[in-house]
Amino acid sequence: MRKLRAVLIEDETMFRQLILLTLGKVKDLQVIGEYGLGRPGLEFCLREKPDLLVVDLVLPDINGIEVAREVRKALPDTKILVITAHPSERLPAELMVLGVSGYVDKTEPIEFVLSAVETVRDGGMFFASKVRGKTTGSGMLIGRPPLENPLTEREKEIAKLVASGQLSKEIAAQLGLSVRTVEKHRANIMEKIGVREVASLTRWCIQAGMVDG
Which of 46, 122, 159, 194 has the most crowded CB, counting CB atoms within 10 A? Predict the structure, then answer.
């Protein structure tokens, strides 16, 4: 089995070493690059195309969000895990819309990073924070704040159908609209919520409570 190739971008030296030790416990994972600054780390990712990026939200040169956004745009198959000491109520929702697969608050036990990496590696999503979270059966705190919904009722209806996997032609037939009208609504929806692909739209709908995850 090919090893999972990972890159770590974290400016705090001691915490970076701690994460490296933690990543070393993940089976079939190889750290191919570690950086304390965002720009060189981003350039390395774009060049080497890792399977996983673990990035701090706050970096000395550029914001971790910008790093994640550029990686997601250029490398859609790369999994992204964000770590931060500065959680907020809206951060998990913003990261999900961006296409990030996981988020861990630095105040959580380091084992959460291990669990997050393993979950993300296996195709899941892992969001853990103490900010207005709710406790699951495992004791993990998952921040899932509701999103402000800017969509009209018709747009909500179409967004839910798109998120469920229906094509514009199918939606048009179901709602008695033209395909062109549905496509226009889809474009408006994506512009309003700031996404460009169906996968991100689906994540947004889940976070907004419009469809089940």
Answer: 159
Distance of alpha carbon 150 from alpha carbon 97, whole angstroms: 14
User: Is residue 203 a contact partner of residue 96, using CB atoms and an 8 Å limit?
Assistant: yes
pLDDT tens digits, one per residue of 117-140: 888 887 777 776 554 444 333 333
pTM beyond 0.70: the answer is: no
Which range has highest mean pLDDT (4-13, 138-147, 182-191, 192-201)? 4-13
Tens digits of residue pLDDT in 62-93: 999 999 999 999 998 999 999 988 777 677 77
66-100 as b/e, with b when 16 or more CB fall inside 10 Å?
ebbbbbbeebeebbbbbbbeebeeebbbbbbbbbb
Cα 50 from Cα 46, distance rounded (Å) = 8
- Mean pLDDT over the full length of the chain: 82
Alpha carbon distances (Å) from 133 to 83, 90, 91, 206: 16, 11, 12, 16
Tell me the CB-side half-sphere exposure of residue 110, using CA atoms within 13 A.
12
H-only helix segments in 9-81: 13-23, 38-48, 64-74
